[in-house]
């Protein structure tokens, strides 16, 4: 199904992003792909078409994320993320179990920030909690489409509202019962944008609402042994030496993890979250459940 067709109220009035249906590739045509107004680029693979009239917030364009998480990255994402992050599925399963344990089984709304790629947050939580609904927010249309393909295949599109845009662009609403931010924070280089994203997430949560935060949590160069082990994991998955270098280069490109776990917890506190509890760790990666202050 096309992303535009998946947009549901209250987001249907946003500028629509239309992804061409399979078999309708518009190779070579000029298209506007989530770029600031008047900027265009030639579409070389799949045609992503957006009537982009959104004002771009300072340093907060969707464009950088869309460029980084492009079509080729979205296609390989499900496989690559499971190699890059040992325990990818376990982390998602535990996140869903923690939310379920905290929120119970009544109808709840969950904001899934950075939902693109596998849609694993939704696949896990929806299976456990049939009464929950989800908003899948992501500015990278290729990633979002990839995730929605899996969500549709699991019969969950009726419980999932697609929002093509950043958390910061999400319209104000009644407040979500819970939110997730998995694998996003270390892809945002600037500290002030990391802080702003956490603040904006908090603004959209009900008081006391849980947030699952997972990200790489220390500079890569600070742990040479972890870097070596990371490379070894790619070898274990069949990569040759050139591929290992390429894979690690691509994963690290533009990624700036927080300085430490303590720095993550300080960031959470500054954004109005309390009682962070780490529940998962794997090489550079950690995951926490935390709560918006009452
Ligand atoms: C590594 S990927 C997907 C991670 C996914 N949650 C998972 O668990 O596999 C990170 C995604 O975050 C999205 N993203 C980056 N900045 C964002 C923001 N401000 N709001 C929402 N999504 C964002 C990117 O477009 C990208 O698709």
UniProtKB/TrEMBL annotation:
SUPFAM superfamilies: S-adenosyl-L-methionine-dependent methyltransferases. Residues 116-209 form the Methyltransferase domain. It comes from the Bacteria. Pfam families: Methyltransf_25 (PF13649). This is Methyltransferase domain-containing protein.
């Amino acid at each position: 199904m096309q992303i535009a067709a998946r947009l549901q109220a209250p987001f249907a009035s946003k500028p629509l992003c239309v992804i061409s249906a399979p078999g309708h590739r518009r190779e070579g045509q000029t298209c506007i792909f989530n770029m600031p107004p008047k900027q265009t680029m030639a579409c070389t693979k799949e045609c992503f078409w957006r009537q982009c009239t959104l004002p771009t917030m300072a340093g907060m364009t969707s464009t950088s994320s869309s460029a980084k998480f492009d079509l080729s990255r979205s296609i390989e994402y499900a496989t690559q993320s499971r190699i890059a992050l040992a325990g990818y599925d376990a982390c998602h399963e535990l996140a869903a179990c923690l939310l379920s344990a905290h929120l119970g089984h009544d109808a709840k709304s969950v904001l899934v920030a950075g939902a693109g790629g596998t849609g694993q947050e939704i696949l896990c939580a929806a299976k456990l909690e049939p009464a929950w609904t989800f908003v899948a927010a992501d500015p990278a249309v290729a990633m979002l489409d990839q995730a929605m393909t899996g969500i549709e295949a699991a019969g969950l599109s009726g419980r999932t509202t697609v929002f093509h845009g950043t958390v910061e662009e999400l319209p104000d609403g009644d407040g979500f019962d819970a939110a997730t931010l998995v694998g996003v924070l270390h892809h945002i280089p600037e500290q002030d944008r990391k802080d702003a994203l956490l603040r904006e997430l908090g603004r959209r949560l009900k008081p006391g609402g849980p947030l699952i935060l997972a990200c790489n949590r220390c500079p890569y160069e600070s742990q040479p042994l972890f870097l070596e082990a990371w490379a070894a994991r790619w070898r274990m998955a069949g990569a040759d030496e050139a591929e290992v270098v390429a894979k690690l280069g691509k994963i690290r490109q533009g990624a700036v993890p927080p300085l430490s776990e303590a720095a993550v917890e300080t960031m959470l506190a500054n954004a109005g979250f309390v009682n962070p509890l780490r529940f998962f760790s794997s090489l550079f990666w950690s995951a926490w459940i935390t709560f918006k202050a009452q």
